[in-house]
Design a protein that fits this description.
about 725 residues; alpha/beta; Arc Repressor Mutant, subunit A; Tex N-terminal region-like; Nucleotidyltransferase, domain 5; 5 domains; five-stranded mixed beta sheet; five-stranded mixed barrel; globular
Length: about 725
């Protein structure tokens, strides 16, 4: 359970008012989802968006982990009998996991060390005397008092004392803070090829002898170097620009004034640095760099996935989809406007069979028989050749032709999901169906595929897989609920991501629909087994029923707000259906008459009493959302799809020449640039420096996934299959 301390920390770190944080955490702990809170609880949160709510949830989770770690540390030190009031206060005062670990380090159980061996010989008192401020005794004289069977001479005694002092210095929080300040300013990341591995790791050639300031190293370079190290090709190190700077800073800390033991302390400091502190800092900063790189890569992946999922849909049209191929032919399927498979077969318009006449006759016949509105062609092997073949055909009706990115289609076709949907068809049919459905509704189809297989990320297999999955699941949930779902046509996998639903309830919704027929109202959803009132509250606003008696059931207006819309219609002496169609009537509505809460979220005691039959109070933010929905009820928020055509002069990489200006589609965005499909089976790279005639911090400032763009060819390396592109100076 969150407390006032959590609220204060979250408010300060995120720059969000405490009452907004408190209300948001309260809703999250009640089981509300982020899409529901951001859409339907704006009065409680002060209109926080999904990003802010997710930030609250994420940081609160980290604070909970810190609290658990703090409790474990307190218990451990207390069991050792070393927990002082001062130490307890320090541990309870910090909200930094790093500081907690620094405070715990001197008390952390250790394996056998040089320092512990010296303690066993009774040399800890000698170490304390040598480090005592203003020590004036001769170190040799002090050491002579500690000779015994295990410490034969003063050199051995002093060495043991220095081992203990070195561990004290390494475990000291102030020492670590000093070293961190230096690393923060001047840490260098270096990579070098391991002897004898140059030939095996030619892909890492850029990093065979590489170094740069760690704070300036972008995530893709860090992940590349760490992958090379993991594969045994590279040796990656992180160190201060000069080790002397670290040692001298610590010497000043531990020897503020000359003493007779200064020489012993200095040797202990240098030993601590080289043997303990610097290796520990290298490990810590390498982990930090990995975490930072993971965060950046996951953010990029999530942004790209969101753009991909929200790509423009063709909508409910009859589609003929083709999964192209040469030797094995092109698999053709016909889908009805709901995406149901009606027909499938294979044509062979390309070599080696080259059955062009037969293929032409078959495609034109299918277009006519199934009243096809659009043709979807996968952009993989033989994609351009198939597109060229289709575009030469003459149909007796208007048919649009689209090239569809088929990344991940093969993964879907071999998955349990595909086998469940099409148990009687092989992978080629399933793949073609997926291509067609992607054109009709990318969101509905792509939710069935592991996002990592879609190909819009950067080093996605190298990052923290738990964090990646959580982030991508959040994106999918956000996109599904942003668009809304037709509960009478959506499959189980799409329904799973609806707010509050999940896999089991999604299956129950499908089973109920199969047994009882299409849902006639949102209210009927309550008849689904295990659809409790809380779950209904979470999901109802995101589920659409196009042909419901109540037109609001096909809108984003939540059932808890139906009474408000009914009241609006009554005040205008009309009904809800008419109100939805009449823009002039809508403009006559005075929203202030329907506010049931004040600006601070407290209920108003006026004529609006009883307007809403739930505990939820309504303010202007919700009312404004209602008005937007009344103007365009149930409208798909995604943009309209446009037909795209590649250059007819370019079909393979050998056709690409420097200086050409070509049309292309953005397929992936990374932090170093974007990849563009120009129709030659090998995407070209537009480096971030070539995106615009101004400084661009990140490519996402200029382009989005699936953008149609014009690019200039800068360079082509046919042997390495690399194409360099630019979006600058296209007129030159």
């Amino acid at each position: 359970m969150f407390n006032d301390r959590h609220i204060r920390i979250l408010s300060e770190r995120l720059g969000i008012a405490e009452h907004q944080v408190r209300n948001t955490l309260g809703l999250l702990e009640e089981g509300a989802t982020i899409p529901f809170i951001s859409r339907y609880r704006k009065e409680a949160t002060g209109s926080l968006d999904e990003v802010q709510i997710d930030a609250i949830r994420t940081l609160y989770g980290k604070l909970q982990e810190i609290d658990k770690r703090r409790a474990a540390i307190l218990k451990s030190i207390e069991e050792q009998g070393k927990l002082t009031d001062e130490l307890r206060a320090s541990l309870e005062a910090t909200d930094s996991l790093q500081e907690l670990e620094d405070l715990y380090l001197p008390f952390r159980p250790k394996r056998k060390t040089r320092a512990s061996a010296a303690r066993d010989k009774g040399l800890e008192p000698l170490a304390r005397q040598l480090m005592a401020p203003g020590c004036s005794a001769d170190p040799e004289t002090l050491a002579s008092k500690f000779l015994n069977d295990t410490v034969p001479d003063t050199a051995s005694a002093l060495q043991g004392a220095r081992d203990i002092m070195a561990e004290w210095i390494s475990d000291n929080r102030r020492s670590r803070q000093t070293v961190r300040r230096i690393f923060d300013r001047q840490a260098i990341i270096r990579s070098a090829v391991i002897k004898g591995k140059a030939q095996d790791g030619i892909v890492y050639q850029h990093y065979f002898d590489f170094q740069e300031p760690l704070r300036k190293s972008p995530s893709h370079r860090i992940l590349a170097m760490l992958r090379g190290e993991r594969e045994g090709i590279l040796k990656v190190t992180i160190a201060a620009a000069t080790q002397d700077a670290v040692q001298e800073a610590l010497i000043r800390n531990y020897i503020p004034q000359p003493t007779s033991a200064a020489g012993q302390i200095e040797m202990a400091v240098r030993d601590s640095c080289n043997r303990l502190l610097l290796p520990a800092m290298e490990t810590e900063y390498k982990q930090r760099a990995k975490e930072r790189a993971d965060t950046d890569a996951i953010r990029i992946f999530a942004d790209n996935l969101r753009q991909l999922l929200l790509a423009p849909p063709l909508g409910e049209k009859a589609v003929l989809a083709i999964d192209p191929g040469f030797r094995t032919g092109c698999k053709v399927v016909c889908l009805d406007p709901q995406g149901n498979l009606l027909h499938n077969e294979t044509i062979f318009p390309h070599p080696p069979q080259s059955e062009v006449v037969q293929a032409t006759r078959k495609i034109t016949s299918l277009v006519s028989a199934y009243k096809i509105d659009a043709i979807a062609i996968g952009n993989g092997t033989a994609g351009r050749e198939t597109e060229r073949f289709i575009q030469r055909l003459i149909f007796g009706r208007d048919v649009q032709v689209f090239s569809v990115n088929e990344s991940g289609a093969s993964v879907y076709s071999a998955s349990a999901v595909a086998r469940e949907e099409f148990p009687d068809y092989d992978v080629t049919v399933r793949g073609a169906v997926s291509i067609g459905r992607r054109l009709m509704d990318p969101l509905s189809e792509l939710v069935k595929i592991d996002p990592k297989s879609i190909g819009v990320g950067q080093y996605q297999h190298d990052v923290d897989q738990g964090l990646l999955k959580a982030s991508l699941d959040t994106v999918v949930e956000s996109c599904v609920n942003h668009v809304g779902v037709n509960v009478n046509t959506a499959g189980r996998y799409l329904l799973t991501y609806v707010s509050g639903v999940g896999p089991q309830l999604a299956q129950r919704i499908v089973d109920y629909r199969t047994e009882h027929g299409p849902f006639s109202s949102r209210e009927e959803l309550k008849s689904v087994p295990r659809m409790g009132s809380r779950t209904f509250e979470q999901c109802a606003g995101f589920l659409r029923i196009p042909d419901a008696d109540n037109p609001l059931d096909n809108s984003a207006v939540h059932p808890e707000s139906y009474a408000i819309v009914n009241r609006m219609a009554e005040d205008l002496h009309t009904d809800v259906r008419t109100l939805l169609k009449d823009r002039k009537l809508q403009q006559q509505i005075d929203l202030n008459r329907y506010v049931t809460s004040s600006q601070d979220g407290k209920a108003r005691n006026d004529k609006t009493e009883g307007l809403v039959a739930t505990e939820h109070q309504v303010g202007l933010p919700t009312l404004q959302d209602i008005m937007q929905e009344l103007a365009k009820p149930g409208r798909d928020p995604r943009s309209r799809i446009d037909v795209f055509e590649f250059s007819q002069d370019v079909h393979q990489i050998e056709d690409v020449q420097p200086g050409m200006i070509l049309p292309g589609i953005v397929t992936n965005i990374t932090d170093f640039g974007c990849f563009v499909d120009i129709g030659v089976k090998q995407d070209g790279l537009v480096h971030v420096s070539q995106l615009a005639g101004r400084y661009v911090k990140h490519p996402s400032e200029v382009v989005k996934v699936y953008d149609h763009v014009q690019v200039k060819v800068l360079d082509v390396d046919v042997a390495r299959k690399r194409i360099s592109l630019s979006m600058k100076n296209l007129g030159n």
